Amino acid sequence: MNTIKTNHGEFNVVDNGNGGTILYVGDVKVFELPNVAWWNLDALEAAIEKNAELITKRINERVNNALVVTRDNAANVLEQLISVLGNEQKGFYSSRLKQCLNKLNAA
Q: What is the pLDDT of residues 43-85, one digit of tens each?
């Protein structure tokens, strides 16, 4: 993994195995450039510039909008998890998450 600094941010670049590059911000994959070699700095900068709007959008979606769980929103987060995971593994997740939600609401 190498790091590249551009006008649009700092990215970790990795070979995608097919002659292209994967861009990461930290350890979060944000974009793939399928026809740009990871070692070609000029081509990487040009491709990042060309796709800057989409890359910025992906960074905002995947990196900047990370869910922050606080005491105030924990019940809401647990309710969302129950709705997403509730039917898996014969209710294992649902029952455990409901126990946590009940304890949180009782406090």
A: 999 999 999 999 998 888 888 776 677 888 888 888 887 777 7
The dihedral of CA 15, 17, 22, 25: what is its sign?
negative
Backbone angles phi, psi at 38, to 5 degrees: -65, -25
3-state per-residue secondary structure call for the chain: CEEEEECCEEEEEEECCCCCEEEEECCEEEEEECCCCCCCHHHHHHHHHHCHHHHHHHHHHHHHCCCCCCCCCHHHHHHHHHHHHCCHHHHHHHHHHHHHHHHHHHC
Q: What's the predicted TM-score (pTM) here?
A: 0.60
Q: Residues near 78 by Cβ (< 8 Å), separated by ≥ 6?
A: 97, 100, 101, 104
- The encoded tokens of residue 40 equal 């070609």
